[in-house]
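Predict the holo structure. Ligand: magnesium ion.
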Amino acid sequence: MLIYKFGGSVLKDAGGIRRMAGMVRRAGRPLVVVVSAFGKTTSVLEKIAALTWKVDDMHVPDEAEPLIRELKTYHEGIVTELFKDSRYRHAALQKLENLFQELDKVVKSTNLPPFEQWHDRIASFGERFSSAVIFSFLKPGFPDIVHTDIRRIIITDQHFGGATVLWDMTAMHVKQAFSSAGGLFLTQGYIAGTQKKEPTTLGREGSDYTAAILGSILQAEKVVLWKDVPGVMNADPKICPDAVHLPGISYQEAAEMAFFGAKVIHPKTIKPLRNKHIPLVVRGLHTPDNAGTTIWDFEEMVRHVPVYIRKERQILLSVFPRDYSFVLNQHLEDLFGLFREWRFNISLVQISAISVSFCIDDPGENFMERVKELQEIFEVYFNRDAELLTFRHYTEEMMRDKLKDCLTFVSQRTRLTAQFVIKRVGRE
Ligand code: ASP
Ligand code: MG
């Protein structure tokens, strides 16, 4: 069993979809193909969700209307370019039409759930659009292909926006759904469903995670993530022109890199595969001759190349108990509990007797509300627009270079990792 996942950045136009079909043709069987929404569709759907929530008449707000139209035109454009045969083209356009009508109904519904649930109802359309188009495109050449609605297979709790997988139930469904004889399956990444069939999502960029869930349950031979980059590099080539390709890295290295902000792999992807020792391969759809990067139990064999990761949109948040009590004895557990509830993503913690600082991903709009809640017990200071720089297998020279023009707020070092919460000063 093989799992191939194709991301939105490679499925953004008809050319990418044709290239994907070529890979499917060449791959062994059985094969599960997991697809993301086309291009930036999910971000547009998120905007639509934000604009339509709490608008409780049957009217789609004026700002949302053009966004829906833009998405429809974009998808129809792909179909028109993709299908030469008009019969298949019409069938694909009809499927899109039906899905857009369904979206319209959801957007206009007056029974409004909490925002995250509303978000998932709307965001889940992206992968439904893309998989419908891709299924229509692949079907004539691969008559045995089975299109599976993953919302009925991956079952989650009700933590909308970043749901947790209910593994036992999911495993049962997955084994049933992907066992039929033909051996070629197409399904959606990122989206899932509750037991009551409410759509949920696994967190932004979560299609990698879907591929890992399926790979781990089906004991796949490997999981391949087809991306628009040739593999994993030791730094982002957009900011480091001398970045080098990493042909093989250990699960541990990959988990650290993903956690600290390397965008090429979703952080949740590693664990399910590492636990079953299934190789994860990151490859470029535009560079099929390059074997990409294999992530596996390499521990002993790999030469450690220095790795540099820059995570932007960070907040350094420092809290001081107003009554001068020790943080460690009394407050840490409560703080972690709150942050968990608020879904704060913490990448670094620094503690002193009467204060503790956290480096967190900027949660956006509701951050100030959270600060107010904290201020009931603590004195709170924060710096927005900070960055977290992480160096693995660091060298002094490398760090000196990258820390130029940076004001360092916090630094931490272990034997393998050095981290700095910084703000850029002067020129970029
Ligand atoms: N389409 C979703 C997103 O853009 C999931 C993914 O691409 O992995 O976040
Ligand atoms: Mg995407």
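The pocket of aspartic acid (ligand 1) is lined by residues 7-8, 36-37, 42, 126, 189-190, 204-207 (CB under 6 Å). The mean pLDDT is 93.
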